Amino acid sequence: MPPNLDNTLASILSSRSSQGRLRRLTIPCPEAVDFSSNGYLSLSSNAAVKSAYLSLIQPCLQSAGPESGFGLGSGGSRLLDGNSAFAEDLEGRIAGFHGADAGLLFTSGFEANTGLFACVPQRGDVIVYDELIHASVHDGMRLSRARRIPFAHNRVYDDPAASGGAGGKGECQSLDSLLRSLSEGADGADVRDGKKNVFVAVEAVYSMDGDVAPLKEMVQCVERRLPQGNGHIIVDEAHSTGIFGRQGRGLVCQLGLQDRIWGRVHTFGKAMGCSGAIVLCSSTARSYLINYARSFIYTTAMAFPSLASIRTTYDFLAQGRAEPLLRHLQSLIRHAHSLLTGIVARRRPAPELFRINPETPRSPILPLLTDRARGLAQHCQERGFAVRPIVAPTVPAGRERVRVCLHAGNTLEEVEGLCRAVEEWIVGTARSSRL
């Protein structure tokens, strides 16, 4: 008699639990100070944003007819009954805001990446990707017909000092050496002659270390190694949207690279405070995605309430109303890093117990690196601070951490309280280890 499926699954879960890797759903404590969520600008709880959102949807709520454009659901995929003039106008507004030719909305960043990478690279093409690229890109690449090869995290050239990245395994080639090897010899003729496309997949800001891609150097490297124009860079701007660039336009716009980047994925579930995503690309690529991106074709379109929330937050950014929030957030980043640096200097903990990246962060993500991530997280949680331990396999073994995310809604006093809790844990843990 075949084994009971639930018994098989339970055995697998038990094995994962014994390794300390079992994932569980938890409900955030509403009284805890949020140092965990990705809502960096605190827009989802911002009174002005909520008021503007209600003002946008209120007329539709008062009109029940189909002419209102309002429904609790969209009614189907956009290729059937789920499209609307509002959605198409929103795509145009967002593309214009980010300096792109066109854009296509997806229901999530995960679906945007899986749809994009699964269908655009053709048979014989190559995808080279940062070794720490998001899981959604990996899933898209697995569905692709293209060959895929990683390069060392944030390393453009063979000299590690040229990139300044953090967190990679150090086992991969640099981007430059990888592109060079792809175009060498008889096997590289099609790449060298521009007959095969090479897609370069990177993130603007990496969610675990909060480090920023050396994007300008990457663009220069790709253009030099692939002068036939067959190198196409795709940037996931999930954690840079709303934070980098003028009025939160992202890292690509901050660096003025709009015309040199083939595609961008901007997601709305982080600093934008809502949900969904958009792929920014050429109008031709948009049409291609409409025809071949399965995660777009075979899913129910976002309903009007979701579209309205995206429109509201983009209006908020475009009007410059997020600028005070961003300035406050940047001051919190500097203050938190200064306090943590001071703790390390005073207490001199063993590196495996506690360490931080010495460079002042450019993003609101501060990893507190420790081989006792669960203990540190629990200590902070018990003192009213919502933080989460991040352990393998989400991050490589040896890179476990408590991931601190700062928000415009946090105060200096809250940051100082969190840092006091961290120092208290370091002192107590170091003392107990010596006993």
UniProtKB/TrEMBL annotation:
Gene Ontology biological-process entries: biotin biosynthetic process
Q: Which residues form the signal peptide?
A: none
Q: Which domain of life is it from?
A: Eukaryota
Q: Tell me yes or no: is Transferase among this UniProt entry's keywords.
A: yes
Which Gene3D superfamilies does this one have? Aspartate Aminotransferase, domain 1, Type I PLP-dependent aspartate aminotransferase-like (Major domain)
Query: Where does the chain cross the membrane?
Result: none
Q: Does the keyword Transferase apply?
A: yes
Obligatory cofactor(s): pyridoxal 5'-phosphate
Q: Where is the Aminotransferase class I/classII large domain?
A: 32-422
Q: Which UniProt keywords apply?
A: Pyridoxal phosphate, Transferase
Q: Name one GO molecular function term.
A: pyridoxal phosphate binding
Q: Name one Pfam family in it.
A: Aminotran_1_2
Family named by the database record:
Belongs to the class-II pyridoxal-phosphate-dependent aminotransferase family. BioF subfamily.
Protein name as annotated: Aminotransferase class I/classII large domain-containing protein
The species this protein belongs to is: Trichoderma cornu-damae
